[in-house]
Amino acid sequence: MSTAKTGKCVIFSAPSGAGKTTIVHHLLGQNLDLEFSISACSREPRPNEINGKDYHFLGVDGFQKAINENAFIEWEEVYTANYYGTLKAEIERIWEKEKIVIFDVDVIGGLNLKRIFGANALAIFVQPPSYDELEKRLRHRSTETEDKIQQRMSKAKTELTHADEFDFVLVNDDLEKACLKAKELILDFKQK
Ligand code: ADP
Ligand code: 5GP
Asked: Residue 143 — very low, low, confident or very high, per pLDDT cuts 50/70/90?
């Protein structure tokens, strides 16, 4: 990256449906000097999602163009033909404002970012209380087709085996407790 300014980042990873987006949204309202890194992706927006706020929805061609332009610090085909990536420009933009970058990325992406940023990163794995509860949450969210639910649940099995490679495993059973713990971890990390 060409940035002169560097800073800290907090990484949230988890299998889809574990609750990381919910926790990240909560933390963004807590005056912790965090700013969300808006990823790029190739999928269509969900009804409640806004382009440039939740994601940069580039479509497959736009995503490919961004890869060719070397715009990503990391990117993954997270699900078959569904691409997601972290834009270098997002990190630069946030550090320029002297804020802490907060990432919501898949498990492999999270581990890649942790490797890149080393001690400047706090990597948190959000763990669902059980595999069955994960499926319940994914279904309850009502955003995926049956086929996509199956894909996400199958990927979750592998993702759960990576939990101990993160700095902290945050069990998201009681949402309020998980949010409080996440806030405490970030406050500690800010002091370092
Ligand atoms: P992710 O970003 O990890 O895919 P979401 O934040 O979208 O997951 O959460 C998946 C679903 O589970 C959402 O409908 C959310 O409201 C719900 N949820 C999140 N945390 C909890 C919790 N602790 N208990 C019950 N439901 C939860
Ligand atoms: P969703 O389609 O549910 O929004 O996201 C699917 C998965 O892609 C989630 O695990 C989410 O964290 C992940 N994801 C979102 N942005 C990025 C990114 O920039 N890089 C990577 N590697 N994964 C991402």
From this structure: confident
Q: What are the two backbone dihedrals, phi and then psi, of residue 105, each rounded to the nearest 5 degrees?
A: -135, 165
Q: Which of 46, 23, 17, 19 is nearest to 135 (CA)?
A: 17
Start-to-end C-alpha separation, the chain: 24
Ligand of minimum distance to the alpha carbon of 142: 1
For the Cβ of 127 lying below 6 angstroms from any atom of ligand 1, the answer is no
Distance CA 165, CA 109 (A): 13
The range of the structural domain enclosing residue 149 comes to 9-191
Pocket lining: 109 vs ligand 2, CB cutoff 6 Å: yes
CA 30 to chain centre: 18
Q: Does residue 1 form part of some domain?
A: no
pTM over the 0.85 mark: yes
